[in-house]
Amino acid sequence: MSCEHLACARCGGPVSEGRCPACRAARAEMHHGHPNYTPHILIASALLIVLVALLAIHGSL
């Protein structure tokens, strides 16, 4: 979910515009720096790590 689709209950404007203190607080809470990792990205990353490890082991033989 993004703040672009949320309306502020206080001022009625889009939260993404940050018109009032409540909008700015909600926007800051939603964008607090934690990335959204989907299961597909995590699985692909794990498989990539395993592949690199296998290639490193095979290359050292």
Structural description of this entry:
The chain has 61 residues and is mainly α. It has one domain. The protein starts with 20 loop residues before the first helix and ends with a helix.
Brief digest:
The chain has 61 residues and is mostly helical. Helices cover 52% and strands 0% of the residues.
Labels describing this entry:
2 helices; mainly alpha; single chain
Secondary-structure-derived class? mainly alpha
Radius of gyration: 21 Å
Distance between the termini: 48 Å
Broad shape: rod-shaped
Q: SSE string, helix = H, strand = E?
A: HH
Topology:
Elements (H helix, E strand, L loop, with lengths): L20 H10 L8 H22 L1
